[in-house]
Sequence to fold (1004 residues):
Amino acid sequence: MKLFVAACSAFLTIAPAVAADLRQQIDGYRAAHETAIVGQLDELTRLKSVAADPQGLAATAAHLEGLLKARGFETASWSAAGSPPVVYGFFKSPTAKRTAVFYAHYDGQPVTPAQWSSDPFMPVMRDGPAGADVDWKAAKPPFNPQWHLFGRAAADDKSSITAFLAAFDALKALHRQPSVNIKVVWEGEEEANSAHLDAILKDHAADLAADLWLIGDGPVHQSRSATLYFGARGGLSLEATIYGPVRALHDGHYGNWAPNPAVMAAELIAQMRDSEGRILIPGFSDDVRPLTAAEKTAIAQLPPVEDSLKQEFGTGRSEGQEGLTASTMRPALNIRGIRSGQVGAEAANAIPVDATVSVDFRLVPDETPGHVRAKLEAFLRSKGWTIVTTAPDAATRTAHPRIIRLSWGGSYPALRSDMASPAAKGVIAAAEKAAGGKVTLLPMMGASVPIYLFDDLFHVPVIGLPITNHDNNQHAANENLRLRNLWDGINLYAAMMAELNW
Amino acid sequence: MKLFVAACSAFLTIAPAVAADLRQQIDGYRAAHETAIVGQLDELTRLKSVAADPQGLAATAAHLEGLLKARGFETASWSAAGSPPVVYGFFKSPTAKRTAVFYAHYDGQPVTPAQWSSDPFMPVMRDGPAGADVDWKAAKPPFNPQWHLFGRAAADDKSSITAFLAAFDALKALHRQPSVNIKVVWEGEEEANSAHLDAILKDHAADLAADLWLIGDGPVHQSRSATLYFGARGGLSLEATIYGPVRALHDGHYGNWAPNPAVMAAELIAQMRDSEGRILIPGFSDDVRPLTAAEKTAIAQLPPVEDSLKQEFGTGRSEGQEGLTASTMRPALNIRGIRSGQVGAEAANAIPVDATVSVDFRLVPDETPGHVRAKLEAFLRSKGWTIVTTAPDAATRTAHPRIIRLSWGGSYPALRSDMASPAAKGVIAAAEKAAGGKVTLLPMMGASVPIYLFDDLFHVPVIGLPITNHDNNQHAANENLRLRNLWDGINLYAAMMAELNW
Fold:
């Protein structure tokens, strides 16, 4: 259903304030409105926008559309094949010559409530990442910026949506006319592989004419400095099952003779990937586009974070010696999980019947999911594996020495866009004003967001505008947003709306 | 508590029947008593003699002691430090010059009832390994010998106890005087590593003076022929936990850099053991005593079973090319289970926090558990691992690149005894009479039973007298005994009681 309302200018057109002042002005506005801004995020987080709750997704989309409409945006709600709606908004600025699309997603990862310290949809403020509860509604601002608000999607991406709305409200209160026309694309299916986004964007390509996409997703650099990223790795998931005997066999009577699928799985993993992160599959990296000199320089200039992260993560080593960001510029073969037989009190002296390995590939330009699949399957065949896609029957099992069942999951390619385009230079300059200094520039985010789509469809620069803390527990229990990151995010969004020019 | 009753001779002393006749006579007795014999096994199987039920173990022991006493055995019940009782029995034969101890265990493996087709302690007869239920109590004997009785410990070892009792009853009914003095040691802690058996045997060494131990445990050869074994592998269990980051990390942002414990576990397994069953740890096999020429000959004469087992197990290969029995003459490093992260619908794009591997070593002469432990730990250190025995604290985690927590479980060494001793020759001759032909001779059973103890303490031959079908699902769900095996076992036990002489 399309819901268009006439756009209206909520801004008075006045002379722009001095650029250096904007940051102070936004800080002042935010300081006076901290309770309302956190209240906005709290309210959004209470909406159960997870794939398991289609009604929650629909209600969230309707709420967001209302928020845009109330601010004078022309709005619409777009879906395809029953997908969660994409919330669209458009705010035209009379003086702007460029148009920027602000993308974020309002859906959150699935939750396992038992793993959470509190209800994922009843936000709780704590005075640190593992701190005591705080009654922020009763507290007098300014809030301690080291407080964290806990809740599913509070960081990923409702923090970006909240920062966008607060920045827009601040500019309005400050009578600042946007320097660009603003379009909004808030997606509800990002955590489910954006299965319908391509179709929806194609259907509405005319509405999405723009000069730039800004992606409100992902965390800032681990140094906690303001960050822009110019690409993201792609993804490809795989579940592989390796078959042993049809029933668990006594490992005293049959061990050393009956094939042990846990051992076969371990051997295969070790053949594919070593403990330094190197992928050992022949030809796997043939399609990898080398980093440019500018990208290498950007990586070399990143603040060092490795030692503090090892402390934070309780690890005594890293994979490889390149450093975090350089490591994530390469393709990755991540093992997400292994299950075979039993361990602990349930362990029996038995050869397991199978072993299941869950794999998460991260792709870099110019790999394609199809090529990665083909290379892995060719590698398996070269090692004597018979590939099946359904559970093998008795005849199949006895006819082949090594049987592996592959269930390929969702996938999309990576993107790295030009860090030196005019639009990129404009975004960097605006971000530096918001940050009051240099910002961290990442050629590519290690995580995956389907931003290749925007490049593929619209052929305009795509730049990441992350605001959440790196330790936000994104995709895990106890997801949280640090308030300082929200405050910085409001400054960043305000600069993108008021000071972006190229 | 000791409970001695005066032994009395329940047998009339008459001239022995012609040896060739005994088999037919026992068959005749059994045919007339099938309902009662299966009833005995059914009754024993209903007793919940599992480690989780100490009262069930005590009740089973008391019941068994009563069965022996009723048959004229001097009996006792021995424990140490609150262990389940060892049921002891002694039946003196006026004409015997030798004494044989009949060992079996009455405890069963733990159960996971949800995995069973029926209550593990409510025995059910079926007309095949996966057949339809049979109302055997209403059926008219002779029963179909391909029926299987399902229940925990129905095979391992209550079938041996039932065969022993039925053979004894048959000989009494046939007025056959035992050719050996009979001692009984029925243990209740074998499935829990026989933790107190050594102490109990030492405490009662005087009562256990004998010339031979016969071990009523384990399955017959997969060819289903009557079998004797002259040793058993030892065992040593290990649970190893490998540590990754303290919390699950997004594998897009941190994969290729933060150590992945699932990969480290796979790499370590592949370094220790290949998919052909070879142990790759340097020096691991230094203590292995070579097979004798007689043992090699015995293995070469075994009926081939590999092809039919591959069909039965649904496997298209074996580990190694030596054949089943030769493979199980070597030490084994069995992986019983692996757990790391999540698979399937629960898989998240995260680097797991740890990986747990459950390992079951099988030892051969002259390996000792202590040497195996030392060799593995030296190997781990050579590969850069820091070994801990409790969960590492934050300082430990960040100080060491690779941390592995080892929890060593119960252990005991292997035994291979002389296949050509006078006692062994006597046992083989008696078994051949029971079988009406050649029997299968295994130098060593692949599975572990703590028979090294009997050798260590008493320095007399120790020979295995298995009766259960190889496909009895021992240690797994739906454990079962094939009736033909019980019938053959009664013949074998009768021959050991009435025709054993050397």
